[in-house]
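Priority: low. Protein: ATP-NAD kinase family protein. Input follows.
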Amino acid sequence: MKKTVGFLVNPVAGMGGAVGLAGTDGQAAEALRRGAVPHSADRAVQALSALRGQDIAWCTCSAPMGEDVLAAAGIDHYTVLYRPAVPTGAADTKAASRAFLAAGVDLVVFCGGDGTAKDVFDAVGREVPILGIPAGVKMYSAVFAVNPAAAADLIRRAGAVPCRDSEVMDVDEEAYRSGRLTARLYGYACVPYVAERTQGGKQVFEQQDEERAKDDIAAFIAEIMIPDTLYIIGAGSTTARIMERLGLLPTLLGVDAVRNGEVLACNADERTLLALLDTYPRAKIVASPIGAQGFVLGRGNQQISPAVIRKAGLRNLIVVATPGKLAATPLLYVDSGDPMLDREVGDSLQVVSGYRIAQRKRVVQTN
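Result:
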């Protein structure tokens, strides 16, 4: 039976990530000024290209909010239900979603981040399932596919797989940009669920044993640091503890660059990291997966882009996480934006989880 899918794109979603803005809500102009390149359309094309020829009736928005993506994906039969002014905003996302709901779609698919998810949920609530193609900076909500390829699979199977109640999170981007994670549960949306295809919600681990484990990890990483080597330290409380062990002030929700015990860049963007790698080609990247979701790359650390990873060398990626986080994170994911690079990661990663202790964790490959 043919299904009807409402589809929209937030054209500016995720632009703030690579340039160190930690989000794009209200910051699109600043992101462009810093040299950001829109990429949400590309992420959406990756997903929808795999659905060319499927028995789906598409409803969408005009121009960059949907129609352009469908055309680029080779889908030429669709109905435009909403025509936004350009540039688009949250009001357009809500209006388009209401138009999809009124048209009786079976599923609303959007490409964006947490802010887009919240706007879609505001409009449709629990009256129709929703699914996000991940293109934002953080994506703490549990309404997203793990990557564009997984989104295509979920859209294809929607109606034949169960839906689950999934968290929509309201993240304060102003607080996030200042280094504080302030998030609250906004509601529960209905989302098509397939294990290893639909992402989980972020969890925060703060037990006493976790704090000791962070200290142990930090002591070990500080001990094995190689002189005259650039260390790119990703976001998170575990990586922040490494900076503190070195006597340095961390950017909790950003990316720092350190060499020989000196901070060369704090809250660095992609362009800064690439310039540092030109000067200091011997480098290591230290990253920690998002708790419960399991994303090592592609969530909250887009500054560590495919170009940065390739220049540093994938073999120089060091992953750290506490035992408690790993216990609640059975699988790891990578969604760097470069499917070929994601495949090169392989089917497992070694994760430093204590002082001279490591666990090997499975990496789910969906591309």
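Residues 3-192 form one domain. The chain has a mean pLDDT of 89.
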